[in-house]
Amino acid sequence: MKKIINPYIETENGNCFGCSPKNEQGLQMEFFEDGDFIVSHWNPKAHLSGFKNVLHGGVQTTILDEIACWVVFVKCQTSGVTTALNAKFRSSAFTDKGLLTVRAQLISQEKKFANIHAEILDENGKVCSEAEIQYMIFPTEMAKKKFGYPGIEAFYE
């Protein structure tokens, strides 16, 4: 498993709710590349629960969208925006039972769109939620000029 560096931390995008380690109220997700997958081992906080220590469904959806974005950064080597997200909740994800594993992979990439499958697994490897996510992706040069995409080299040491 290879650590992915967050090159946005010291930029105007450095306060991202999903991935910034500086955002104390955020998710503070970190990412790794594991073959075809982008993976995050994430420890949920109690204040993100909905009912009885169950991770709020909206937060789960945000997590799934966030990891899909990192698939776009690393696997598609560009940036993009979410155009569709279809989440399914399979089993409860708890805020008090330890690390959750979040993973996503690129399913297909066309000229303007990337289709990604993402899922959250509990401490026993059971799928809690999953989503099919479509991103509209930008040509790399446009992503660099308009959206501050730093290039694939910036994500690795």
From TrEMBL:
CDD domains listed in its UniProt record: PaaI_thioesterase
InterPro entries documented for this protein: HotDog_dom_sf, PTE-AB_protein, Thioestr_dom
GO molecular function, one term: thiolester hydrolase activity
A Pfam entry, by short name: 4HBT
Domain of life, per lineage: Bacteria
Occurrences of domain Thioesterase (ranges): 53-128
PANTHER family recorded: UPF0644 PROTEIN PB2B4.06
Protein name: PaaI family thioesterase
Organism: Labilibaculum euxinus
Lineage, opening ranks: Bacteria, Pseudomonadati, Bacteroidota, Bacteroidia, Marinilabiliales
